[in-house]
Amino acid sequence: MDTALVIGGTRFIGRHLVDDLLAHDYDVTLFNRGNHDDPFAEDDRVDHVQGDRTNDSALEAAAADVDPDAVFDCVAYYPRDVRAATEIFADVDAYVYISSGDAYGREEIPKREDETPMRPCSPDQATDESDDTYGNRKAEGDRAVVAAADRGVNTMSVRPCIVYGPHDYTERLDFWLDRVLEYDRVIVPGDGTNVWHRAYVEDVASALRIVAERGEPGEFYNVGDRRIVTLEEMVDLIADTADRDVEVVHAGPRELEAGGLSTDDYVLYRDYPHVLSTAKLAALGWESTPLEEAMARTLEEHEASDRDGSEYDPGRDAEERVLGILDTL
Fold first, then answer.
1. What's the Cα-to-Cα distance from 74 to each of 11, 82, 310, rounded to whole Å?
2. Potential cystine with 8: which of 74, 78, 94, 154 (Cβ 3.0-4.6 Å)?
3. How confident is the model at residue 324 (pLDDT cuts 50, 70, 90)?
4. Which residue ranges does UniProt annotate as crossing the membrane (predicted)?
């Protein structure tokens, strides 16, 4: 494969995907509306086609103009998007859809591509715009991938868990980075052993390329850090990376309630572990970045940015009340 069309490609996963493709000598074209800052605007190695991915005529024109070997769909949020794209790009060597670990419909450890069932998706859910139906819509997109493969289209799906790394506009990890950098005592909800599988963004990017090059049509591939850490271990990793001496303070539901908080107030906390098996992807030759390297790159970019994850802040005053209560116990 020599040419790649990236639908999206300027914000987070897509931005790192373009970097990865360029590093592997692909000719890259971006297709997007141009609504976000484009880090590749002045890069002569990257071509640009402006258009709305929900406009089938615009996608058809891009397909004809670019004639890509591989298509990477970073912004397919509705099943219709996938069905339309797999029709328009039916002749490419690879169409790779970014799905989600949230597409799985049953809690089990680990969630496996060929064993764990997907979420259902009703007609209303397929067009709903709320976060509540995100996983349902991604699952239906995966079913569209299977249907297209059954028609002979070379289409695959990659399912990341929680993605983190440089340029993460969601700011989920930025909250924890900021907490470690700003405070000597960091509250970790529960006993610190809860697990929400995370995936370093550069590894997601390489997974997308490797699946395009080596994956099988109609197949799904989970992607996540090969070494999984608890929430407390993640905070410790941030502190070690930042060379900060931080005390982790556990606060259970009762202690948090005394401060007017709950475990749900903390981003990246999850009661039941969310773990994806990555063996299927690893079998294609994919490898993940050591956590220490991933966190060092993430922290470096965080410190150079203005992101602080404040939208997830449960309130330091409330936390101080909780800390005061715990100090008396």
1. 10, 11, 26
2. 74
3. very high
4. none
